């Protein structure tokens, strides 16, 4: 870990709190403005800051509404229609009963929400984006691997969300608007929010949840009576247990996809905002939003599986799943489904924003490229992928989400152990964020990361590969997430002790 915070940071203050009183949360050094930033300042509303930390004097006041705004932002981001698709997989693909699938969703999202809440606290504490903070746990260069993995994660999520939005718009127009055109409409809206930056995005998210919640309550009232609460899970006891664990992992993966970006959205808040408060507000907001949409998807999936009329409407697309739920409402149902499409933008824009930051974190050369260039490039890439994979939505969801969870949970295990076991009470020197000589060497974290991946591989059960441990389980069972945690958790502490003894940082 980086050196303990020094006591000579000066007398800079925020809201009458001195640097010495803030301890490890002292002011940071800021990279001078580039030519791009000076040019961009002429465009009203365009965010000019790159990955450099937000200094204390530029952060917002910890007003009484700050916690409410944080909660509403996570409510808007999590209450997305693509989470309805994930929920429907529990009853449609895993053939679980409503009760089994619902319990899996609640448990998986509770675990994921607690993890996301913990990572979000680093934003106010440091003023740094999540994967800049990762340098203090992984080392300067190894953290770049996490940046690359998160770029791939957000490209994949952007692709899936755009496909969901495109399918809904196409279904609403009875095919007059093609899925391709629908995808383009969604990504353009997401690109605009991501390009203009966090303040505009947070303002949008502050109100977007209202329409989303109203329409989701409408579909719950309309479709709820047709949810199937009676049918039991299909398969042998071993197969049912395997499907339960697989669906828990899928719901957990959905929440954990926010882990590498959780702190990005709170860097404009001051460190005087309590860590426990930030943790709980984020956890509750993310848990409630994602769990609600998962449960709604589980109910819709159970209705499609056992209601002939819904089965006739459903053609394997997200649009038809929603239209089945809104079937009784006619034209008004189509209006509600269109509003649901806006939730895709709420879910997509933050990933595009963070992805552009991840590109800049790859090194000083990348840092010189303006952030909107990366936002635009990543948007073009995931748009092309969405258009190419628009007919394979469920397969992409089921195959891609576990891969996200494998690396994020391994990385999070290292972060948690480093912070709780090795840096508890010692503080962090946030001015070292871009100095590789003052950051950990990263040997222990890198080796533990690889060992964790070995555990995930031997325990994974996917269509493209089944590990030897997973194949030994009767009926098949994806144990990749849990073995990844176990292998990493056991390996990292002794490796870190060795690193500290011989390397010293």
Automatic annotation (TrEMBL):
<feature type="transmembrane region" description="Helical">
    <location>
        <begin position="207"/>
        <end position="224"/>
    </location>
</feature>
<keyword id="KW-0597">Phosphoprotein</keyword>
<feature type="region of interest" description="Disordered">
    <location>
        <begin position="1"/>
        <end position="20"/>
    </location>
</feature>
<feature type="compositionally biased region" description="Basic and acidic residues">
    <location>
        <begin position="1"/>
        <end position="10"/>
    </location>
</feature>
<feature type="transmembrane region" description="Helical">
    <location>
        <begin position="66"/>
        <end position="86"/>
    </location>
</feature>
<dbReference type="GO" id="GO:0015851">
    <property type="term" value="P:nucleobase transport"/>
</dbReference>
<feature type="transmembrane region" description="Helical">
    <location>
        <begin position="98"/>
        <end position="119"/>
    </location>
</feature>
<dbReference type="InterPro" id="IPR026030">
    <property type="entry name" value="Pur-cyt_permease_Fcy2/21/22"/>
</dbReference>
<keyword id="KW-1133">Transmembrane helix</keyword>
<dbReference type="GO" id="GO:0000329">
    <property type="term" value="C:fungal-type vacuole membrane"/>
</dbReference>
<feature type="transmembrane region" description="Helical">
    <location>
        <begin position="245"/>
        <end position="267"/>
    </location>
</feature>
<keyword id="KW-0472">Membrane</keyword>
<keyword id="KW-0813">Transport</keyword>
<feature type="transmembrane region" description="Helical">
    <location>
        <begin position="139"/>
        <end position="157"/>
    </location>
</feature>
<keyword id="KW-0812">Transmembrane</keyword>
<feature type="transmembrane region" description="Helical">
    <location>
        <begin position="439"/>
        <end position="459"/>
    </location>
</feature>
<feature type="transmembrane region" description="Helical">
    <location>
        <begin position="177"/>
        <end position="201"/>
    </location>
</feature>
<dbReference type="InterPro" id="IPR001248">
    <property type="entry name" value="Pur-cyt_permease"/>
</dbReference>
<dbReference type="GO" id="GO:0022857">
    <property type="term" value="F:transmembrane transporter activity"/>
</dbReference>
<feature type="transmembrane region" description="Helical">
    <location>
        <begin position="279"/>
        <end position="300"/>
    </location>
</feature>
<dbReference type="Pfam" id="PF02133">
    <property type="entry name" value="Transp_cyt_pur"/>
</dbReference>
<dbReference type="GO" id="GO:0005886">
    <property type="term" value="C:plasma membrane"/>
</dbReference>
<comment type="similarity">
    <text>Belongs to the purine-cytosine permease (2.A.39) family.</text>
</comment>
<feature type="transmembrane region" description="Helical">
    <location>
        <begin position="479"/>
        <end position="498"/>
    </location>
</feature>
<protein>
    <submittedName>
        <fullName>Purine-cytosine permease</fullName>
    </submittedName>
</protein>
């Amino acid at each position: 870990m980086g050196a303990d915070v020094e006591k000579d940071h000066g007398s800079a203050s925020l809201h009458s709190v001195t640097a010495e009183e803030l301890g490890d949360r002292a002011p940071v050094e800021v990279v001078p403005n580039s030519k791009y930033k000076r040019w961009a300042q002429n465009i009203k509303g365009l965010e000019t800051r790159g990955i450099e930390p937000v200094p204390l004097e530029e952060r917002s006041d910890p007003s009484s509404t700050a916690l409410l705004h944080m909660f509403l932002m996570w409510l808007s981001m999590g209450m997305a229609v693509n989470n309805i698709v994930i929920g429907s997989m529990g009853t449609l693909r895993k053939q679980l009963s409503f009760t089994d699938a619902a319990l899996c969703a609640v448990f998986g999202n509770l675990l994921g929400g607690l993890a996301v809440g913990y990572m979000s606290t680093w934003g106010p504490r440091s003023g740094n984006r999540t994967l800049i903070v990762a340098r203090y746990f992984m080392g300067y260069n190894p953290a770049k691997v996490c940046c690359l993995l998160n770029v791939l994660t957000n490209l994949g999520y952007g692709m899936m969300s755009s496909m969901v939005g495109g399918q809904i718009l196409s279904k609403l127009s009875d095919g007059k608007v093609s899925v391709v055109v629908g995808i383009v409409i969604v990504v353009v809206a997401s690109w605009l929010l991501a390009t203009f930056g966090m303040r505009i995005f947070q303002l949008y998210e502050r109100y977007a949840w209202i329409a989303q919640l109203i329409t989701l309550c409408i579909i719950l009232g309309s479709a709820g009576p047709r949810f199937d609460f009676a049918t039991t899970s299909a398969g042998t006891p071993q197969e049912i247990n395997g499907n339960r664990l697989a669906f828990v992992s899928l719901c957990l993966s959905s929440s954990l996809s926010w882990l590498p970006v959780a702190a990005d959205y709170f860097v404009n808040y001051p460190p005087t905002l309590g860590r426990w408060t930030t943790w709980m507000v984020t956890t509750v907001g993310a848990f409630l939003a994602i769990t609600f949409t998962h449960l709604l998807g589980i109910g819709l999936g159970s209705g499609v599986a056992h209601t002939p009329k819904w089965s006739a409407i459903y053609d394997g697309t997200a649009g038809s799943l929603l239209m089945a739920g809104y079937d009784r409402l006619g034209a008004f149902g189509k209006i509600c489904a269109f509003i649901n499409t806006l939730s895709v933008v709420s879910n997509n824009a933050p990933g595009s924003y963070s992805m552009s930051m991840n590109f800049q974190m790859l090194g000083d050369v990348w840092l010189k490229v303006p952030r909107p260039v990366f936002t635009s490039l990543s948007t073009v890439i995931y748009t092309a992928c969405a258009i190419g994979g628009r007919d394979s939505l469920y397969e992409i969801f089921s195959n891609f989400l576990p891969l996200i969870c494998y690396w994020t949970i391994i990385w999070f295990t290292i972060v948690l152990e480093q912070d709780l076991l090795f840096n508890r009470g010692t503080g962090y020197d946030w001015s070292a964020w871009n100095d590789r000589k003052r950051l950990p060497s990263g040997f222990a974290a890198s080796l533990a990361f690889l060992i964790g991946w070995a555990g995930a591989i031997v325990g994974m059960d996917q269509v493209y590969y089944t590990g030897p441990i997973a194949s030994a389980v009767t009926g098949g069972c994806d144990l990749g997430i849990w073995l990844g945690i176990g292998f990493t958790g056991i390996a990292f502490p002794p490796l870190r002790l060795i690193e500290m003894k011989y390397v010293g940082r």
